[in-house]
Structure formats: C-alpha cells, structure tokens
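In the lab's daily routine, each protein ends up as an entry in a very long ledger. A line of letters takes care of the sequence, but it says nothing directly about the fold. The fold becomes a row of whole numbers, each drawn from a learned catalogue of backbone shapes. The protein below has been through that process, and both of its lines are reproduced in full:
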Amino acid sequence: MDVRRSRWMRWFVGTCVIVVFATACTFGEDTANEDGGSTGSGEDGAVTLRMWAHRSKSFNQALRDAAAAYEAENPDVTIELETFAYDDYIQTLQTALPAGNEADILHMFGTWTCTYGDFLQPVPSDVVTLADAQERFYPGPLGGYVCDDTLYGLPQESNVEYGATLVNTTMADAAGTSTDGWATWDELVADAADVTEIQDGVITRAGYHFTAGDGLAHSFLSLILQAGGSFLNEDGTAFTFATPEGEAALTQLKEVVDAQALDPVLFNDESNWVGDCYFTELCAMGLVGPWAVADYAEDYPELVTNTVYAKLPPLESSEAFVADSGWGLTVSNTTPNADVAWDFARFAALDPEQATQWNLTSGTLPALIENAEGTARDELISAFPHFETWFEVLPNAQFVGQLPDRDKLYYDIIYNHGLAALRGDEAIPDALQAMETEANETFG
C-alpha cells in the first residue's frame, strides 16, 4: 500500500485515461518542448511553466487556484498543471528526473525529496533561508525538504497519520465511551472493546482500526518514541526495532487485538481499509489522517457531522509521534525559469493568505506555524471542525527521518511483519528481528 493509495484510487474519476506509462492528464494546453521542460520566455517576456502533481481532486483544485491567483498578479506567466495517477507519478519521477525530462515545478511528497535531491534546485536564500524556514514551518512537514542542511522545497501541509483517531460519536454515545480522548492505553483499549460488535464469534464492527499500512507503521514507530526509544541508530545508518521499546510498542498494539476490539485478518489494507471501514460504519474508530474526512464528506455528509478526532494517549510520558513530511513545492534544476518557479512557490507556500486558501481547498492542515493560530486557524476549523484536535497535537509531530526506502519500510516490512505478529503468526520478538534485518537491507 503506497502513500494514501486508497485515497488516490477514490479520486481517480476518469477525467483522463492513462494509456501508456507516464502519460499525463493535462489541464490547459500542453506547450511543453520536446525535452519535456518549460517552453521558456518569449520575446515579449512571457513565461510558461509546467507543474507536475499526483492526481487528487482537492489537491489539484488547490494547485490550479494558486496558479490562477499568481497569474492574476503576474499576467506574463502561465502555469500548466499536469497530473498523474499516484503509482504512475512515482514511476515518472524515477525515469524523467535522471533523463532531464521533468516539468519546471514538481509537487513533491516531502519524505521523497532527498531521494531526488540531485535533480532539484535548493531554495534560493532570497526566497527563504533554512533558518527562517525552521522558524516559520512546523518541523514535521519541513524535515523532508532538508537534505544535508540544505533546503530543497517548501511544504504546504502537515501530513499526520497518528496523534488522533476518528470517532463515530453516535456509536460512542450509545456505548458510553469517550469522544474526547484517553489518558491511558488501558482506557482506549477498554473503550474500543466496548464499542466493538461481535456476532457468532466474528467481529462485525471493529472498535479501533489501526491496521492499514500508514496507521500500523506510524503507530509502531510513534510508540517506540513514546517508550523512550529510537527506531534509528545515532547516525541514522541502521534501524533498531528489536529493542525493549520496540517490543513494548508492538505488545501494546496487540492488546487491542487480544481485547477483541479488532480482527487484523478482517480489517487491514486489503480488506475493510480504514477509510472505507469507518465511513461505511464497520468501524467505530479509525486511525487515518484528517484528509480522509474531506475525501468522504461528499458521499457521507451525515456521518461527517457525527465524526470527531479524539487525541490518542501517550504510551508513557512522551506525546511525541512521527509524521511524514507532506506535499509541497520543489523546482527542477533543469528549468530555464527557476526564478519564476521559485517566486510561485514562495507565493503559494510562504504567503499566509495563499497558504491558508491552499489548505482550505485541499482539506489539509497547515505547514506554516502562523496559520495554526488566529484568523487562519479559525477559518480552517470553521470549514473543518474535525481539525480542532489536530491543532492541539501538531506541535508533537516529529519528522520520521531520512529513510532509504520509506514505502518499502512501511508497506512491505513493518506492515507485513506487524500484521503477522498481531495475528499470532509470528512471535513478537521474531517479527521485530525480521523487521530490523529486512529494513537494514534497504540501506544497501
């Protein structure tokens, strides 16, 4: 399961068909040159920039709106958005960047950025310095864009998949369980068991679904931190999962299963995926980021009004949790119009008003610290009441770190062995050792 794959698949709505590898759905006339880069500047000073992004209704609309606002202030600039299905976007980046065929502006998932650092331009200091960026952005979203103390992009969202869980308030009220969070894991597990429904020995409604790829990986890694451990060694060159803290984390997650609040055979990435599970009322609580509510709101408006996010308890005293660096703007090092590309990135990501509009349209949490306060915060909560809890926990989000192969670690290694341990197919120490061995092989 790749980053939010279920989300992107829901958003694949047939506005264009990918016929061959790396074919893009283009919004606006495609004026790219044969090398795939910018059309450059004409004699009248006009500039046309191409921007690539993964295909997503709300994200694409937010990018189009930002481009239109920038074009209104800069009538000599045209920005053309081309989008790709998520998996095709990954493959296209992997092939186009080394070949120099990429667009001028690349909407990049922050945790990928350093993988492509050789093909991206550092952010010019007259746009923002690294020191200033560290003052303005939350560390979670900014971390992925910092490679060897050099800034390579500007984040637009705080990407969080842990820290709070969806709660169906109708189900919780009927069961007498909490809708505003828990002080301890014992309390969470007890409530999850109380709101679970079982018929003939089969769980028909899960109490707490955390076993999607993102949810399981972020739960496991976050609980290691909260137990006082680290999942990377001191210099970041090896994973450390087979530790007392790793065992404490996985053991805590298994307690949810042992309490019969979740069956990881029936509820996982392939069966009853957490978003579908929650919004079809097969789960009372579900661990998935706040983007999911915006995704499902059109189809399930009544359920959304009965949905809140409740803060998850710390494993011990620490409330720190891991987060990926979310989507943001990077610039190709082959573009002949880097100054214009970076000026657009500055406009879209650093201007508080424009950044707020991007979050409002995309249904995402702000990356800018100042937009989690004051008028911007009020606007976002007014549009998305379920955001309120997230504003409380955003300061606790820590960037997961520079990982050699993030998707393989999450979706092949932690997910497979974690699920096996939860199902009882692997002993917890064996699962942890297998995770550590396989994860360390990704360092090459």
Residues 1-38 have pLDDT under 50 and may be disordered.
